[in-house]
Amino acid sequence: MSTTSELLTASLYDVFGNRDATSRRQAIERSYAPDVVFRDPDGSVTGWDALEAKAASLIDDAPAGFQFVAEGHRYVSDTHGALGWGFGPVGDPQVRGIDVIEVRDGVVTSLTTFFAEGQQL
């Protein structure tokens, strides 16, 4: 069973920041509920396959030098967590945002992504 902090890390790096489709899928199945709901300004998707497609489209369409990095403090409880992040070349994030997760039974049941005002992926 993963902690909320571990799930925030897995979501950012092992799923959304992972360019390897096989290990990304393994991380999704390990870290998220099968009926996970992902929300961002583009809308919402439900389930592992939809989450995988969303993550793949974000990282696969980004330039090779772009990566996600955690920024700031983690905010965690047994049921919720939040983590700010940056996305772009090392040391020069082009986009900033925050992920808010809901956790039940050691997996993420919902993930909502907010972008810094005026920014989008």
| End-to-end distance | 31 Å
**What is the oligomer described by this structure?**
single chain
Q: From the helix content, strand content and strand pairing, which structural class follows?
A: alpha+beta
Strand order of the largest sheet: 2-1-6-5-4-3
What are the secondary-structure elements, in order, as H or E?
Answer: HHEEHEEEE
Strand content: 35-45%
The gyration radius over C-alpha positions equals 13 Å
Strands, helices and their partners?
Layout: H1 4-16, H2 21-31, E1 32-40, E2 43-46, H3 48-60, E3 67-76, E4 80-88, E5 95-104, E6 107-115
Parallel strand pairs: 1-6
Antiparallel strand pairs: 1-2, 3-4, 4-5, 5-6
Helix pairs in contact: 1-2, 2-3
Report on the architecture of this protein:
The protein has 121 residues and is of the alpha+beta class. 31% of the residues lie in helices and 42% in strands. The protein contains three helices and six strands. The protein has helices spanning 4-16, 21-31, 48-60; strands at 32-40, 43-46, 67-76, 80-88, 95-104, 107-115. A six-stranded mixed β-sheet has the order 2-1-6-5-4-3. A hairpin with a 6-residue loop joins strand 4 (80-88) and strand 5. The radius of gyration is 13 Å and the shape is globular.
In short:
The protein is α+β, with helices and mostly antiparallel strands and 121 residues long.
